[in-house]
């Protein structure tokens, strides 16, 4: 067995990914080094690749039957990585800092998560309507998000749905549920739904399958 | 980073616990040794303890308001462990063997999972109605299950609900959803729901919070 701290931190991370640990505000202090090694040492990349593999297994040889077969992908730490930002924030060991975070996003410098970009390209090739659904504020972060996604290869998608003023103050579950309900009302069949937060994947109209991308750095209720 | 196999097996196990990997019939061959070390080397026990800790955080100082505040616990590999049986089945490296499994359960020799027994006792002390809900066949396994639970300290619960003939052939999600819906119709408020399979925790009336106990040895759809 690993050292007591490594053992505890592995268990904590597992509790996060299985949605047993909720409402946490920072990574436990004794796990900051563990999360750093996880994110930078290769295991995180392997874990994301494993999710991409499961999506590939689920897809098999299938393609969109028509223009109503849809997938939903979250943006932050699903398509685009905030890891360069969190490196400066002790990998989640510091509480959320909205001003610094907005400055970071406005730079439009988030790199693609390559395994998810692979999933995205496959979905596009197969003719699925891909919706990128994000809690980012449309007013403040719209332009930088559009630019960042395009620069990182997330182009040609059906629709980018950002948080409009009407949804300000909504929690992620009711906001994203409302968006998905609208898509279903438009006749879309949500074949899959990918996010790094359980709040992307719970609520209404979650889709035929959901896929949780690992993220031990922060929790969005 | 760990060896390529260890890295892959950690990712596979994470994919199982986050419900990304579904419908698998055996542990991947290259991960049988990994799962053995996980189950016997201390990390599994630490992971179960982390879930129990999260339940304790969720409970806080709360107690049942009246006789309708309920919790649901699954039996196999939630309250009672089948690890002694799976030791003989390559820790899930062999496909499910219903005849051997029934023989094992008829012995009534499953040990309690101590961290879950601790949760159980706390829930009983706090006055919650605890329902043990299992897919085990009532006709075949009823007597041995009742005896095994009592011998391992799971006594005094409100009701043990086993699969009656009426539910033969039901999948776990519709079977357990139907049971939970009936409990809600009786006026129970399901405050929490604990199981080692996602099929214990998805569907209808899942409860205010669900808790996933780790299990990398088998998958029940």
From TrEMBL, chains A, B:
Belongs to the APS1/VSP family. This is Acid phosphatase 1. Transmembrane segments: none annotated. The lineage of its organism: Eukaryota, Viridiplantae, Streptophyta, Embryophyta, Tracheophyta. GO terms for molecular function: acid phosphatase activity.
């Amino acid at each position: 067995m690993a050292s007591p701290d490594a053992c505890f931190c592995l268990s904590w991370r597992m509790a996060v990914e299985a949605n047993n640990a909720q409402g946490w505000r920072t990574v436990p202090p004794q796990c900051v080094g563990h999360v750093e090694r996880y994110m930078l040492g290769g295991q995180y990349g392997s874990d994301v690749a494993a999710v991409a593999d499961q999506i590939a297994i689920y897809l098999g040889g299938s393609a969109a039957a028509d223009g109503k077969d849809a997938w939903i992908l979250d943006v932050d730490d699903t398509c685009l990585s905030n890891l360069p930002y969190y490196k400066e924030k002790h990998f989640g060991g510091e509480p959320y800092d909205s001003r610094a975070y907005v400055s970071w996003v406005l730079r439009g410098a988030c790199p693609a998560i390559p395994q998810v970009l692979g999933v995205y390209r496959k979905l596009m090739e197969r003719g699925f309507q891909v919706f990128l659904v994000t809690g980012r504020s449309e007013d403040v972060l719209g332009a930088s998000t559009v630019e960042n996604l395009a620069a990182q290869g997330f182009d040609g998608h059906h629709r980018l749905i950002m948080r409009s003023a009407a949804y300000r103050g909504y929690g992620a579950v009711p906001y994203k549920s409302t968006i998905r309900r609208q898509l279903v009302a438009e006749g879309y069949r949500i074949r899959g739904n990918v996010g790094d937060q359980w709040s992307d994947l719970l609520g209404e109209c979650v889709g035929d399958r959901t896929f949780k991308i690992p993220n031990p750095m922060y929790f969005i209720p």
